[in-house]
Specification:
This protein has 3 helices and 9 strands. The chain has an 8-stranded antiparallel β-barrel. By secondary structure, the chain is α+β, with helices and mostly antiparallel strands. It is elongated.
Length: about 200
């Protein structure tokens, strides 16, 4: 009889030590949430100024500064290309947005990009890395390695809406040093990125 009681107590103790299904799932749920949050943090931010000359088709160009949340590096780029869409004769814009997919030196921000933009005064843009305008029609197909999206403020000579689809090529980065031009929001996102890594 005593042996039976001891066996029952041992079985109960073993059962108490085993995690329930809910307890076993809890760490994996937390891990998935953390992964989702970390995955939503951009790898950097870009701000730039651009201009274009033309009507339905236009030649575009500009400069951008990219801050990198992986490394704290700040880099400058120049770019040029073509846009298909209404440009308002002569147009210009300033813009800023977040970037996903940067490597630590932002060197993969150079090369080809395919994007869309539009607005009447206040507008927006989205772009993805691609083969670039020097690779023929296939160069316009986005690869998705690096992606950027944001808002801008533009003006055109003829006023009203302007925008379209563009294909551009970016120079190699001119490195400006660590944390150059970082805003408080940039430092916050940089810190969050380091915690996630």
């Amino acid at each position: 009889m005593q042996a039976g009681v001891v066996a029952e107590e041992a079985a109960e103790a073993a059962q108490q030590q085993q995690p329930t299904a809910q307890q076993a799932q809890r760490p994996s749920i937390v891990k998935r949430v953390v992964q989702k949050v970390c995955g939503s943090i951009p790898s950097g931010r870009t701000e730039g100024i651009s201009g274009g000359i033309g009507g339905v088709g236009s030649v575009v160009g500009g400069v951008e500064v990219v801050v990198n949340y992986n490394s704290g590096q700040t880099s400058a780029f120049a770019f040029g290309g073509l846009q298909l869409g209404w440009n308002g004769g002569v147009s210009g814009s300033i813009y800023s947005g977040f970037v996903y997919g940067l490597n630590s030196s932002s060197s993969n921000y150079s090369g080809g990009f395919t994007g869309v933009n539009g607005g009447a005064g206040l507008g927006g843009f989205a772009a993805s890395s691609s083969g670039g305008i020097n690779h023929g029609p296939s160069g316009f197909v986005p690869t998705g390695e690096v992606q950027a999206a944001g808002v801008g403020l533009g003006i055109g000579l003829l006023g009203g809406f302007s925008g379209g689809v563009n294909a551009t090529n970016y120079t190699n980065p001119l490195q400006l040093g660590k944390f150059a031009g970082f805003t408080p929001v940039d430092f916050l996102l940089y810190a969050a990125k380091q915690v996630c890594e």
